[in-house]
Write a structure and sequence with these properties.
Shape of chain B: elongated
Strand order of the largest sheet of chain A: 15-14-20-19-18-16-17
Largest sheet of chain B: 3 strands, antiparallel
CATH architecture of the largest domain in chain A: 3-Layer(aba) Sandwich
CATH class of the largest domain in chain A: Alpha Beta
Strand content of chain A: 15-25%
Largest interface: A-B, 15 and 18 residues
Helix content of chain B: 10-25%
Number of strands of chain A: 22
Structural class of chain B: alpha+beta
Shape of chain A: elongated
Helix content of chain A: 10-25%
Oligomer: heterodimer
CATH topology of the largest domain in chain A: Rossmann fold
Number of helices of chain A: 12
Bound molecules: iron/sulfur cluster, FE2/S2 (inorganic) cluster
Chain lengths: ~500, ~170
């Protein structure tokens, strides 16, 4: 393992590592656009200039392997001047769109202009005009004037998705990123290009113009979209959630996440949520506080002989543990696992996306196994068809989009004499249920998801959207006889 | 508040102070009656005070030569506003050379402190503070000014035009 000295700090790196990786290891700042830890080295932006002792010329850090005993620094006047000039070249034809550019606030050009630039432009020539608002595909919009041709996006479609939709066309200062005829950028990971674009050239249609980034707060959590369990950063403000972006985790998702997963914030927003408990009465639906509905449910269940529980893989392990425990203790061992898409359940697309569209199937299976519950779906169907189940409690999904069988299943569940649906989101299919009790979404609670590999990951609790909604933990306390709802999820943390 | 007390023998008596005060009152009464031009007060609302041209009164959203809003919905004014009283909803414009524009722009004028920071933040001279300052209204709702009020109220006569237009800007290579 070679050792080198970076700005006076000695650091040991892996064999074959480059100087920029040594910089990353020491947390010394180094300007860079084209280098990305998840992609190959291109060495085109020339921002990562460093001075190597014994070498008369400056070198780029991203494409220079560390040699044992190397002494490198990037804080000399020579390097600073070189970086400033490189930035000047990058900005020659830049449109300075910042006021209408979605990247403003998290833009590499703005950042380095403040840290390495702060010059007055010396360009007297006219700027080269290029294409603006180019529709690249279903999700991404391109502004070729803002592009600095770092080629990160091209390398991404080349190396990660291997779909090769993007390319650099033309030459010199007329070079532009673009797609080939009839081959739009429509792969399942296309929005990663927006994340890795260091400037505002690639923007996401979903997020475009909806909010300025500096108005958003964020927290880290786990994606709910499938059993891969990608680490994500969720962005929100007082009006709700706005976007999610991947957080690097070598073991789980590398640097990426899929486009589907970027939609999961939507159902957590208020407009999709069930906000009050609903009980079906002879006179119609009556709305009440979720806790009150849960207490009525408990009373209703207490004189039921045959109750059963259906669980989906969309809740946290802690919730399963406690809820299965109190349900079986109070109402018997009838617990079933609802698999939403058995045919495609084990699919894998070779990158991240899993066919199992539940974040915590493994957690659920572990809990059921731990409690010694072995039940089959066929059993449940048979019991429902023959009218053996008096009251069925369903811990329904929050991501309805991945439950294509929802309507069919709710009709099946309706064969029980009474049906209770626990759900964070509202759906017209639930209208026939006797009780609908609002649950918290994964954005609003603590807990653990276990991904397909068995890696346990903690959720990071964000702001509360529906403050009275329950978790399965709260509900199990109520079923166990308490009329109080735990402070834990009901009132802590900021609320929207 | 600090009170300065003068301790002398006269101030112990009640009447001398009263008479002195009344003296000032009558002196000013006679002065105002005889030379009305020098009077400091105005008979508002019949008479109105002319403020200087840089007075920061009610906001105006400027328009381009074609009459559409100059504002690009960059939200820098909303960011800079210390009273947090500007609400903007941005949208994609059909014309790619405009790209972004506000479909809703509201200023809660009762919360505004008329500091002018919005005017200062705007990169495209889209918001100015005009000379008008009377804002009568009958209920709270009428104090939330929207685009039609801010840009096209009758007193602006069709809108205040900015100097530089997009077309000229693009032609000039900016
Ligand atoms: S890419 Fe960056 S510098 Fe360029 S307009 Fe957008 S925010 Fe401004
Ligand atoms: S679009 Fe963005 S990521 Fe792609 S080359 Fe241009 S600057 Fe780089
Ligand atoms: S004048 Fe000041 S307080 Fe009023 S809208 Fe502008 S920035 Fe806000
Ligand atoms: S700063 Fe100017 S351009 Fe930006 S939103 Fe405000 S008024 Fe519009
Ligand atoms: S980061 Fe090294 S050349 Fe771009």
């Amino acid at each position: 393992m070679p050792k080198c000295t970076v700005n006076g700090i000695e650091v040991e790196v892996k064999d074959g590592a480059t100087v920029i990786e040594a910089f990353m290891k020491t947390n010394e700042s180094i300007a860079h656009y084209c280098w990305h830890p998840g992609l190959s080295v291109a060495g085109v932006c020339r921002m990562c200039m460093v001075e190597i002792e014994g070498n008369p010329r400056l070198q780029i850090a991203c494409n220079t392997p560390v040699q044992d005993g190397m002494v490198v620094y990037n804080n000399s006047e020579k390097v600073k001047e070189a970086v400033e000039w490189t930035l000047k070249f990058h900005l020659i034809n830049h449109p300075l769109d910042c006021p209408i550019c979605d990247q403003a606030g998290e833009c590499g050009l703005q950042e380095y202009y403040m840290s390495h630039g702060s010059y007055d432009s010396e360009m007297a020539e006219r700027k080269v005009k290029k294409h603006k608002v180019v529709d690249l595909g279903e999700k991404v919009v391109l502004d070729t004037e803002r592009c600095i041709l770092c080629s990160r996006c091209v390398r991404f479609t080349d190396e990660v998705t291997k779909t090769n939709e993007l390319g650099i066309f033309n030459r010199g200062d007329r070079s532009e990123i673009g797609t080939f005829e009839n081959r739009p950028l429509n792969n399942k990971y296309s929005l990663n290009t927006v994340d890795i674009c260091p400037v505002g050239a690639l923007t996401s249609k979903d997020f475009r113009f909806r909010q300025r980034v500096w108005f958003l707060k964020s927290f880290e959590t786990i994606c709910q979209g499938c059993s891969a369990g990608c680490n994500v950063q969720a962005y929100y403000n007082e009006n709700g959630f706005y976007r999610v972006k991947p957080v690097p985790n070598e073991e789980v998702n590398g640097h990426w996440m899929c486009d589907e997963g970027r939609d999961v914030y939507k159902f957590a927003n208020k407009e999709h949520r069930l906000v009050s408990g609903i009980k079906k009465e002879d006179s119609g639906l009556s709305h009440m506080a979720p806790g009150a509905a849960a207490v009525q449910l408990r009373e209703d269940l207490s004189d039921t002989k045959k109750a059963a529980l259906v669980l989906t893989g969309q809740y946290t392990t802690e919730e399963y543990l406690k809820f299965v425990d109190s349900f079986t203790k109070n109402y018997g061992n009838e617990v079933y696992h609802w698999i939403n898409n058995p045919k495609t359940f084990d699919d894998f697309d070779g990158i991240l996306l899993r066919g199992d569209k539940n974040p915590n199937t493994v957690g659920l299976l572990r809990v059921l196994e731990g409690k010694g519950i072995k039940s089959s779906w066929a059993d449940l169907e048979e019991k429902l068809n023959s009218g053996q189940i008096e009251h069925l409690v369903v811990a329904g999904p929050e991501n309805l989009a991945v439950f294509p069988d929802l309507e069919e299943k709710v009709t099946l569940f309706g064969q029980a004499q009474k049906l209770t649906v626990l759900t964070p989101v509202k759906s017209k299919f639930y209208e026939s249920a006797d009780y609908q009790i609002p649950m918290k979404s994964f954005m609003e609670k603590d807990g653990t998801f276990v991904n397909h590999k068995g890696i346990e990951q903690k959720l990071g609790r964000g702001p509360i959207v529906v403050s009275q909604a329950l978790t399965l933990l709260d509900l199990s306390m109520i079923l166990d006889g308490s009329d109080f709802i735990s402070v834990n999820s009901a009132s802590m943390g900021g609320s929207l | 508040m600090s009170i300065v007390k003068k301790e002398n023998s006269l101030s112990k008596w009640y009447l001398p102070g009263i008479l002195k005060g009344l003296g000032i009152t009558f002196r000013n009464l006679i002065k105002n009656l005889t030379s009305r031009d020098e009077m400091l007060t105005l008979n508002y609302p019949e008479e109105k005070y002319e403020y200087g041209p840089r007075f920061k009164g009610n906001h105006v959203l400027t328009v381009k030569k074609d009459g559409s809003l100059r504002c690009t919905a960059c939200m820098l004014c909303a960011t800079n506003c210390p009273a947090d009283c500007i609400t903007i909803v941005a949208a994609e414009h059909d014309d790619p050379s405009v790209e972004k524009y506000p479909i809703n722009y509201e200023i809660d004028i009762l919360r505004c402190v008329f500091c002018g920071f919005c005017e200062e933040a705007c990169p495209v001279d889209a918001i100015r503070m005009g000379p008008e300052w009377q804002v009568p209204g009958v209920n709270g709702a009428s104090f939330i000014n929207n685009i039609s009020e801010l840009a096209y109220r009758p007193s602006l006569g069709g809108g205040i035009k900015t100097v530089l237009d997009d077309e000229e800007r693009i032609k000039g290579g900016i």
